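Blinded run. Sample ID left blank on purpose so nobody reads anything into the name before looking at the predicted structure. Input follows.
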Amino acid sequence: MTPNVTGIGPVVVYLAILGFVGIQYHRGKVTTRRLPLLVGMSLIWLASGLFQLATNGTTLGYAFDGLSVLALVGGLYGLYWWWRHRDVETPGPDRDERQSL
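Blinded prediction complete.
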């Protein structure tokens, strides 16, 4: 039996997006503060594509299930980490910091 690989297109696209984020980070165009957000979203998209591939009950299907669960947990953790470590409010240069004279 051959596995159903008709839904492999989204997985390839999501892997390309994840690779593109990595390249942009390496070039310095994505900040370290924003990286967990982008990687988390990319991993969640990848998990959804892998869940679509794992429809049959074969060993390969179980492997795709396991990879998709790992990608989903990793993506959710990345989003959680970004949410907890983002700056709530940073004072900008236009903010009036009054000093007592």
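Unblinding after everyone has recorded impressions. The first helix runs from residue 8 to 27.
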